[in-house]
Protein 1
Amino acid sequence: MKNKTKKSLLLLVFCISVCMASGCGKGSGSTDNKGERKIIYVGHNQPADHPTNLGMLAFEEYIEKELGDKYDVQVFPNELLGSQTDMVQLTQTGAIDICVASNAIMETFSPAFTLFNLPYLFTSVDAFYAAMEDESITEPIFSSTDGAGFSVVTWLDLGTRNFYTVSRAIEKPEDLRGLKIRVQQSATNVEMMKRLGGSATPMGFGDVYTALQSNIIDGAENSEIVLTANGHGEVCKYFSYDMHQITPDSVIVNNKFLEGLPEEDRETFEKGFALINQVERENWDVSVAEAKKRAETEQMVQFIYPDTKPFQELCSPIHEEYLKSNPEKQPIYDKIQEYNTYYAAESK
Ligand code: GCU
């Protein structure tokens, strides 16, 4: 059976079982066979050995160790519960409880997230980490979805996003001309590609491998881990460190589920959410190093280190236009620039 058909069938079976277990229309709240433990459905789109999944498994272990008599956490990796957009919608309605959403998908649910999608917003990974630890920056963005039925409970590292292509090394923006590059489905990502001169092809994460293999696209953009773990490096032989984005993934939770937690359990869950971030980040650098080695030795990918300045210059009007239409975000933007300046010399 084709991968996609299999996934759709699994999703259908999942929706039917959630519906039957919870009584359709009631949202989440399904319990195990004995009716004793609430099942917590967690979905994301990364493979089993990805740091995101390791973080989620640590969460499962922790919650079940502390509150195993009441909750059964079930983690579904690999888009088994649907695409990211599907999963966010399912989390919104409460059909599932927790999922991971990229910043681009979040932008389509809440415009406040656009800020973090601006290309070259962060000039180094350390500036990004510092900003993510600063609640005066993250809180106004992360809390903007509360009215949409879900809350951001923590964020995840996904490294730097870079272009990788099938047959042409990207050394300068001109090299992108005429190439169809998969971007995430958000207005900012399409605009970024337009400014850089390539042809933006928005599509869901799960469709990228097939699109690369069948020459529908000439390249994509993501981290070293996605390049190898998702097989993109089997087709794309040039990975160019243009570092156009450093964005967080968000771990989001259905509000009814969160607010319905007894006070004494809520504290444990908050610790569990923090653990997802901690374990994911602890595993990130090692996974990147392993991915890079695999890309070079098994997939024969060539890593290229272009001057990022010309890319950055082409994208700077996106910042200006954004700030013109969103002047209320200027103070947060300025704060980020302070971190950029502070960490400029220490960029990873
Ligand atoms: C990264 C990110 C995912 C996102 C994916 C994409 O892997 O962690 O959340 O879905 O990029 O490009 O769609």
Note: The radius of gyration is 20 Å.
Protein 2
Amino acid sequence: MNILDGKATSIALQEEIAAEVTKVIAAGGKRPHLTAVLIGMDPASRAYVGHKVKACAKAGFESSTIERGKEISQTELLEIVRTLNNDKSVDGFIVQLPLPDHIDATAVIEAIDPRKDVDGFHPLNVGNMSLGLPTFLPATPSGIMTLLKRHGIVTEGMHAVIIGRSDIVGNPMSVLLSRNSEPGNCTVTQCHSRTVDLKSHTLKADILIAAIGKPHFITSDMVKEGAIVIDVGINRISDSTRKSGSRLTGDVDFDNVAQKCSWITPVPGGVGPMTIASLLENTLQASLQNTDGIS
Ligand code: NAD
């Protein structure tokens, strides 16, 4: 079994991005600027945004966070989006999901200027991705593609089984892995909560991608010998051995599944860090496209 090391790969990628930023600045260009909009006090969202801000600083980006309470109205949030769309100093921004129930997340995403939509969630960018046109790829699937590539894994002809059909992970992952590209050229089966006899599908997977949000859902009897297993899940479970009383774990029963795999991502240290590196890639791209890198 080999580890698909997202932490090391992400550090390497972030160093490359930082070197690119240094070059742009030396040539008189603009420092990329990412803004995160954080609504409410959800601890997980707060932690994700914290990681993103830290990564921006390391890569030489400017970053800012706009925080509002969960009682914000839809109109107020749309006004924040409009302001960011028009702010020339901001190259890209994200509205951290999930949003409170009274906010229409689709309306918020549709209000984002697609040229600043570094999460790649705007329908125009989703459409471009589906057509294989240049665009901002959603950070998590894009990070997984980079992880496979940088570990020299050739996926052509493999059967990829993806569990999950969210717009941010499962759906774009299916599109990217079935593309005529490398990584890509997989035969893709996409499973979800209504799939009958899930195990009959997972057992056929050369690449198994779990994006479910249920701790240790994928057990070793569901995995084919020699499979590549990508664990997207981030779940907090209680752990009395930890000072905090809890720890993060994935959707895969790592200890037992790892023994059967050719490659596997750990949680933490797998897909999570790659997501952040991909977001920085998108922001650098936005900065270069929107301003030609010139201040
Ligand atoms: P989601 O809740 O939108 O989607 C979960 C999917 O799992 C659904 O499409 C559902 O059909 C499927 N599902 C649920 N129960 C199932 C079952 N019994 N059998 C088969 N399929 C089932 O979640 P999401 O936003 O796609 O995120 C999934 C997980 O990935 C979460 O744990 C989330 O925290 C994590 N995540 C991690 C990163 C990262 O950077 N590592 C990024 C995004 C999401």
Note: Residues 140, 163-166, 168-170, 191-193, 195, 198, 211-213, 232-235, 271-272, 275 surround nicotinamide-adenine-dinucleotide (CB under 6 Å).
Protein 3
Amino acid sequence: MRIGLLTGGGDCPGLNAVIRAVVRKGTEVHGHEFLGYRDGWRGPLERQTMPLGVEQTRGILPRGGTILGSSRTNPAKVEGGLDLVRDNLAADGVDALIAIGGEDTLGVATQLAAAGVQVVGVPKTIDNDLGATDVTFGFDTAVTIATEAIDRLHTTAGSHHRVLICEVMGRHAGWIALHAGLAGGANVILIPERPFDLEDVCRHVDSRFAQGFSSIVVVAEGASLAEGQLATQEAELDAFGHARLGGIGQLLEREIEARTGREARTTVLGHVQRGGSPTAYDRVLATRFGVHAVDAVSDGESGVMVALQGTAIVRVPLEEATRELKTVPPERYAEAEVFFG
Ligand code: F6P
């Protein structure tokens, strides 16, 4: 078979590990050949391709980013886009497509599968908010990076008796904030799933200082005040309609200083969480996803996504994975609340 491969959406540590695994197993065990599509869905939309064989995937296992490039191009937003993708795949002699991406990329994959294209998905996002899989690769790396940052913030916060606010990624799901906050011993964790009250936050800050310690607040970029305001730096929307978020850390900084009289500073971790080498956990998970994705294609599967359930890699309908975001349930947040204040 000739199999097309693309990586879409925000990049994520472990993408190259998936590509390597797909190509290695596909070539050496199944005898397939591969075509790389560049920059997510832009590749099949504009027939932007690159050669992809074992040679191109040597040495990429620990490398961050994606050798295929990525974009947030959405063919469903382009007039006749999905038909064009289908026609271009056929013109390139591609029998099946493996799409590695998050909710948006896999949403397009779902539509293509319904239109008769053989498509298998691989779940990717540092946010860990895809349904049907226990974990997505990239999440462990992001949490590790954020935890290390929080560890470092503790010592400087202590020296200056300051409140240090660490803003992490997570538009709609607070998984990175929850895990990094727990691992880093934050005394307040704020997530999009639970709009927060500034008075509660300031009470936790004061209580930490009263115990003789400085305060670390971890906040997800999509967290909002109880009144429901969403902190957005600019109203610009991407092709999937997402606002570019930012600014909740600064808002907290201002409010905490004004209400507690304590000096506060904000660190926005941003894309540092997405760059660089994947952790060992993410390399293993990404490799297993790649191996199982190419097996699924070889078995003639379509409209499915590989997923981690417990310790097993299983195949689930793409629709199930993209139906709704996996957000932090109240009982998981309650575990973290024990350590607030
Ligand atoms: O979806 C992954 C993610 O890293 C989000 O956590 C974040 O809000 C977004 O991508 C940022 O995307 P961009 O690449 O457009 O800055």
Note: Residues 10, 102, 125-127, 169-171, 221, 274 surround 6-O-phosphono-beta-D-fructofuranose (CB under 6 Å).
Protein 4
Amino acid sequence: MQVIIADSAQEVARLGADQLSRLLRTTPEAVLGLATGNTPIALYEELIRRYRQGELSFARAQSFNLDEYVGLAPEHPQSYRYFMNRYLFSQIDIPLARTWVPDGMADPASAGEVYESLIEAAGGIDLQVLGIGRNGHIGFNEPSSSLGSRTRIKTLAPQTLADNSRFFAVDEFQPSLAITMGIGTILRSRKALLLATGDAKADAVHAMVEGPVTASCPASALQLHPCAVVIVDRAAGARLQHGEYYQRVRQQTDQLSSRD
Ligand code: PGA
């Protein structure tokens, strides 16, 4: 794992955007794995800014989102399809028909397999963007998820329901099921890019990076990913025991890459 401790949430977004920009420059037809939540909003804002300045284009790319609520139609304001259209797709040049979000209204028995086939037909995911839940989840792979799991229906954990209840009105239906890429799906991406900001994530980030690989912290499975980059701000990285070492690795990596 490459661990980068950035000075601020803005720097997390900038460094994350650098990863996507580099990929899109070398591989314009890249297959992007995208995420919803508060954390990636700043990343998407930065990507939109770069797109508007003519620095990058998504015209030949395609994307697969991690997850969607079961029972919410795409036009529902709390659906993740709606989120993606609002915060990213409507503001860049990616063809909407080449953006995929799991179908929350599809037959639960087959929806996961259908999504896996779509990813496979696209040639697999080049770069998967991830956030992390306070309970260590990635996508909606809650603690105890199989580390080999593929896209399927999951029951949301109480902590996740509580964390996300702020998005739903008091008397509004809040789904307790989601369809999510599995941990095995995420591990098959060619690169994983996890972003975390704020002190509420400090324990989960510590467990992910420095704890054992365990289904109790699904994000710890990224220790098994051949190319995982974790970018956190100081608050989210506050519990890391080896912060100085990660800083040194970063400096040396920067020096090596500036040589060519
Ligand atoms: P957040 O969600 O970015 O809204 O904190 C992250 C997650 O639950 O994966």
Note: The first strand starts at residue 2 and ends at 6.
